[in-house]
Design a protein that fits this description.
Elements (H helix, E strand, L loop, with lengths): L7 E5 L9 E5 L7 H9 L5 E4 L9 H22 L5 E7 L5 H10 E7 L10 E9 L4 H7 L24 E2 L4
Parallel strand pairs: 1-2, 3-4
Antiparallel strand pairs: 4-6, 5-6, 5-7
The structure holds S-adenosylmethionine.
Length: 176
């Protein structure tokens, strides 16, 4: 793929304004047909899965958090189903809201998993982003389970973005 051949597919159940080069699906991501239709729209193996989905608010904060975390989980499972090796996953989550099972699943499948609070996210908001980098490829998780001597020497604490002003609030997902 070249810069002239960027393929982006987007999904939202609300109407979105058209964007050049972006195939837009107006559909519920939780619809069982959504993954297949997204993959059809992108027409190849994606390098990146990004989710900014947040469930419509009900006014009951705990319910809203749970529903948005569910969207994050479904997006994460979609990512490990479709990403090519070396691909990345970024999704909206909440401070302290990422379930251990989800973090463990991502850590098994990606070389680095961190939480980010970008500068553009309001400080008073509990919103965070979960970033999983360098997908190991399908089969990595089961290979890990079979191989307790797994010698992946990638140190998931080494890679930081300290020189970027937006990454002041980044922290390792292990610390949650
Ligand atoms: C925080 S907004 C982000 C919108 C977009 N990133 C933007 O900046 O305009 C969350 C979006 O998630 C969408 N959303 C929530 N649940 C969804 C679902 N199940 N399927 C598709 N989109 C969903 C909402 O319609 C909303 O547009």
């Amino acid at each position: 793929m070249t810069d002239e051949d960027i393929r982006v597919a987007a999904i939202d159940f609300l109407e979105m304004a058209p964007l050049p080069g972006v195939k837009i699906l107006q559909l519920d991501f939780l619809d069982p047909e959504a993954p297949r239709l997204l993959m059809e729209a992108i027409g190849g193996t994606p390098d990146l899965v990004i989710s900014d989905m947040a469930a419509p608010t009900t006014g009951h904060q705990k319910t809203d958090h749970l529903r948005t975390m569910h969207l994050c989980e479904v997006a994460a499972h979609f990512a490990v189903e479709v990403l090519g090796p070396g691909g990345h996953f970024l999704a909206k989550t909440f401070q302290g809201g990422t379930e251990k099972d989800l973090l463990n699943m991502l850590k098994q499948n990606f070389k680095q998993v961190i939480h980010i609070k970008p500068g553009s996210s309001r400080q008073e908001s509990v919103e965070m982003f979960l970033l999983a980098k360098h997908f190991k490829g399908r089969g990595a998780a089961s290979a890990l389970a079979d191989d307790s001597e797994n010698d992946d020497d990638y140190d998931d604490r080494d890679e930081r973005y300290d020189d970027h002003p937006d990454h002041d609030h980044e922290r390792d997902a292990d610390q949650d």
